[in-house]
Amino acid sequence: MHYPDGLLYTKDHEWTKVEENGLATVGITDHAQESLGEIVYTELPEIGKELKSHSTFGVVESIKAVSDLYSPVEGTVTKVNLDLLNSPSTINSSPYQDGWMIEVKLANKESLKTLMNAEQYKKYVDGLK
Question: How far apart are CA 105 and CA 21, in angstroms?
Fold first, then answer.
């Protein structure tokens, strides 16, 4: 499994990359996509949707399960990866690059304090086995 440094992670297996301009890109982790298996459908929010930390922002459906997606941050959706609607399996092949899901304008940076760095997330996932 791969957990890039420079990202922040949730116990729900989402990642976020926070930029200096206050925008945060969000997706699911390598662990999540591997656990789900082949992803066949994604449902993502509309631009402008207000998100709270840990609120549901969408759904992924795989050959194994349907899973809710939880926002790691609080803010407003500014961009959605529409390519995933036609090619949801991109999440499996590139969870940290092409498989990103949404971009959020942060409303509250305090919510970032509850997230894990790569090393902490790896230990968390190892503890689940």
Answer: 9
What CATH number was assigned to the domain covering residues 10-108? 2.40.50.100
Q: Whole-model pTM?
A: 0.95
pLDDT tens-place string over residues 43-59: 999 999 999 999 999 99
Helix (H, G, I), strand (E, B) or coil at 22: coil
Cα 79 from Cα 127, distance rounded (Å) = 34
Quick one: tokens of 123?
């230990």
Each residue of 72-103: pLDDT tens digit? 999 999 999 999 999 999 999 999 999 999 99
Cα 53 to Cα 87: distance, rounded to the nearest angstrom? 27
Burial of residue 121 (CB within 10 Å: 0-12, 13-18, 19+) is: buried
